[in-house]
Give the backbone structure.
Amino acid sequence: MIIDFDKIEEAHLTNFKGGNGPLDTRNYVDDKVKIMYSTLRPGASSGLHTHEGNCEIVYIVSGVATFHYDDVVEECRVGQVHYCPEGHAHYMENNTDHDLVYLAIVPEHH
């Protein structure tokens, strides 16, 4: 199965999950997984959330993401992956002056 994000309508969100600022995203969703190709704009963030019943894998396509994972702050750069297992909490920030582009995969465990 090929997922072509160019053929998925882009959603323009503000304050995603209680965060701050704009997020543009193209999402494939079924009952087993969410696959999201997204752009977090400069100065924007997602909101803090805990993964219950799923986990999240975030691959950085371009830019630098600052993740707040449990009580740790980590920078994730191009080609690196941030992993948030089930039962853990995180949020991300774009503290740079350029777009942060990433691919996020959230498989359902239950």
About this structure: The chain has no helices and ten strands. The longest strand covers residues 22-29. The radius of gyration is 13 Å. The CA atoms of residues 57 and 83 lie 5 Å apart.
